[in-house]
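On clarity, I found the account of how folds are encoded harder to follow than it need be. Since the whole study asks how a given chain folds, the encoding of that fold should be made plain. For the editor and my fellow referees, an illustration may be useful. An entry of this sort, consisting of the sequence and the corresponding backbone structure tokens, reads as follows:

:::
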Amino acid sequence: MMNIKHIPTLLFAAFLSISTVSCSSDEESENNGIDIWHNGGTNRNTPTANCLEASRIEFPKTKGNKSIILKYYSGDAYGLNYCVEWDTEKKSQRWSCYFMVDHHHSNNDREHTYSGNAGRYEPMSNPGNHPGDRQYPWDPQLPEQYRWSEDLFVRSGYDHGHICPSADRQYSKEANYQTFYMTNMQPQRNAFNAKLWAVMEQKVRDITPKTIGDTLYVCKGGTIDDDSQILTRIQGKMIVPKYFYMALLLKKGNQISAFAFWAEHTNVDHSGDPLRNYVITIDELEQRTGIDFFCNLPDDIENKVESNVAYNYWGF
């Protein structure tokens, strides 16, 4: 939480020594696979006609001004895939957010699961001018004036680093294809992208709940707002973040807990490091990025889960 909020003393007296918070089922309702807690935070997003999704739990506080929200839906059978905040002036994504579950709903076996056998998207063997012919197409809903006129990743020495990973969206070919949009990419050195970042992504999949009603909320990105947190700019244009992060909040049964990964973007293989070395609280992540994560939670829950980490709960 970015603002200091009052925590009701009696409500959380029992939780002062741990970093999970209980919530009862009568406080929840389901909306497209997302648990909504009533009486959201004082700094919550205000949904608009153009972005009703902004009230979802995985959303941080949106920037507004020169930033827009891009939403990716994978047809009626699957619903919302993920969302991006795109800075139209920087021509860079600030974050991608989405949710993770690994179970089947009784009414539709295809719905609300990250896993499957869709396979990794591959372009046509003889690519042409159609966006679907290219490995990394531009999102057709993003106006041309808000994006680079060429793929600046090519021959730059940086990978097209997925923020919402292809492996997190295997339930349909359309959903997987959408993860290859350039709006979901940040420049990453291969020794980071294919090593430490990949290990962190696997951890996200490992902790994804398999029980109906349990959900992992994810918001990931690279630092683009503070010049001291920008590594360089490709051709003097495209931002290369100096740091990458993941903000994670897990609802499991009647407990919720949160933590963040924070890692410096280097060209050194750190995949063998203990992941615990990269764990910080959501509060710390907010201080480093200036982003208010999980702002749509009620203030009392947000204050508690963002201030510390339950290492055992997360398997560290």
About this structure: The longest strand covers residues 243-252. Residues 3-18, 24-36 have pLDDT under 50 and may be disordered. The two ends are 24 Å apart (CA to CA). The longest helix spans residues 190-206.
